[in-house]
Amino acid sequence: MRRLSPRPLTRPASVGLLRKAGTTPYARAMSRFLPLASLLALVAASSSAQSTAAAKGLNVTALTPTILRIPLATPGPSAENSSWAVSAAVRAQRAPVTPTADGFTTDALQVAIDQKTGALTLRDRSSRTILAGLSLQRTAGQTVFTLRAPMPAGERYVGLGDKTGGLDRRGSSFVNWNTDAYGFGTATDPIYKSIPFFIAVGKDGAAYGVFLDDPQRSWFDFGHREENVLTIGADAGPADLYLIAGPTVADVVRRYTDLTGKAPLPPRWALGYQQSRYSYMSEAELRTVAGRLRSEHIPTDVLWLDIDFQDRNRPFTVNRTTFPDMKRLTADLGKDGFKLITITDLHIAHAPNQSYSPYDSGVAGDHFLKNPDGSTYVAPVWPGPSVFPDFTRASTRRWWGDLYRPFLDDGVAGFWNDMNEPAIFDTPTKTMPLDTRHRIDSDDFAARTATHAEIHNVYGMENSRATYEGLLRLRPNSRPFVMTRASYAGGQRYAVTWTGDNSASWDHLRLMVQQLLNLGLSGFSWAGADIGGFTGGPSPELLTRFTQIGAFTPIFRNHSAKDTPRVEPWLDGPQQLAIRRRFIEERYRLLPYFYAVAEQNSRTGDPVMRPLFYDFSKALTAPCDQSMSFTVGRDLLVAASPKPESPQAYDICLPGGGWYDYWTGKRVPADKISETPALERLPVFVRPGAILPRQPLTQSTAEVPSGPLELHVYPGPDCAGTLYWDDGTSLDYRRRAFLRQAIRCSADASGLRLTFAPRDGSYRPWWRELAVTVHGWTGASRVEGAGRPIAATADGPGEALRFILPDQSRGGEVVIRRQ
Description:
Largest sheet: 10 strands, antiparallel
Strand content: 25-35%
Number of domains: 3
Low-confidence stretches: 1-50, 54-58
Number of strands: 48
Number of helices: 14
Radius of gyration: 27 Å
Mean pLDDT: 92
CATH superfamily of the largest domain: Glycosidases
Structural class: alpha+beta
Shape: globular
């Protein structure tokens, strides 16, 4: 949102921030490689019960058979066993190990230390090398540390959240320092979030993960400064390094989210289309936009209000001249199926003696950050001089969360925490001084004063945490919806996110896909980008392409700056609107599938939007440019042009072959096809073996679909699908008020058998019938269920068979026999 500050450093410039230990003769003489577990005083005679290999104040601990923790804190009284990202309960886990001559083994791993160099090698139990030659360098008397490891040829590196520069990080370097990056480019670094976690993926798909849990400034170099050498460093501790074994990418992501937490299941309305702008300036304008969305039959669930709805840009206020009655507004919008989300930046106007309640109560509770001399830190942001909550204190987070009560009482459905890097105006660093004081009083941290240098990268996460926990406390059975711009590893527990102030350009359309994929691999499955671009103004074709691809991304929000052309879907004439509307409608028809994938994410951590190699390792060696290809869950594959601005034909590789065209339902004749771009088409394919649920079209998730639930069966290997549904808004699903049902199919020469497992959960859905379509089907057939014939209709040209079933709430079986 709205940044007027200078552009951040581009990546080549950021390399100058990298520090190398031992740059003087004395320092080089004093520096040493500390063995990660050498001089192994392997702790016990009964060592099979131990999980720690210790060495001179450093140790390797097996939290689980596949997750190793290596504390990197400088030994001494200041070392602290604490984390903003990993809970105390998780850090306390231990897995049994068996000592070996050079390390130890778990049920899944072999940990070995070279006694001469101290380098760690990690293998699986079949002796396949996972990671070789990892060593730690620390300069005596300093807190700087560096980790080094060789980079095998062909190994790819993904993750690090919303960093720019493409999906694969190899050949690049990055700094973790949350930054207000208005107008960022495709090579800008750092930007909004710091998620110091990556996944290494070998040519065969075998993977491992590395997570540096250090909220202070850190850096990752993937063979940029030193070819084929991975280096990781940070200015200070305490820090923990986690090594996460696979063998698959999915295994690594699931275990990383075991460490840092799963994203909660969002309200179902958050999966709908969302319309925003900086800013809708009045209630009248917002009502006009809402009315146009409905009159144009553009399905929509959410409207957003940016800072101009407030009184003088002051958070937790409303401009009563332009928005005279928020409660009536939200009620009227609700009748038409809209939810309202409002922004609350984290800065509080410095307004003594002005009856500004957030400031007055914050002063009374001593909730604001301090300068080193003990005075309150004041700096300019949107309201003018502002003060900043001390979110590392539990009491401050509670005070902040309680500020949302009036908005909830007015019917506001969700909240947007922006500017929380934190962004500060009129300063070359674009943030607050590093010696600003935070008072840690939270979780399992020792109560103490910390500098902003330590807290900077977690400040936005703790802001969104305060909002999330406050909403949950004020409405204990409602799913909070919070969007944040800045965050840290583990922030997915509290908020969805977006990629920030992107641009209306073809480069940023490509970047949207790559950023969202890496965010999903980094735990942030619920992420989106400003459809159309925040800055600049998209051409009609660019906005249409953004909308088409955006319809398959997790968070689907159209948002633009006030000094740019309007980009609501009806702009640019009826032809463009018809295409945009069709893709928004398809999003709503697919909501049962999206929602089942969302629920899977909340349990397993599997991303909603995935690179092809997440589920199909063969995609790693495909001879196609897949930089704009991704899957939604496992079953839908979107294959946009890698050069979306070009009319040139391009190749699409479908891993394993046998896929179906989503739009026609027919089998694709080959596993490599050529696609000539057309404005009205986005190539989408369905996995052979998918069972895909769809619903009749609605104008919002508040509208109950009319008619049967559709089940589209695409015969193939591992033929399976899942139905999941609940009330969409409450937390009753945690008390088994949900519907989950597995469906499988098996095919042979005689026909196909469709099996419905008994349902799990107590929720009763809206549908009473199932409209089944079996794709790729030709010839005459007979359909039977429960021993009785079922009327079926064959669609010869469409290669499909259709029939209606009663809802299979208790399970059942349908047999389709060829004749």
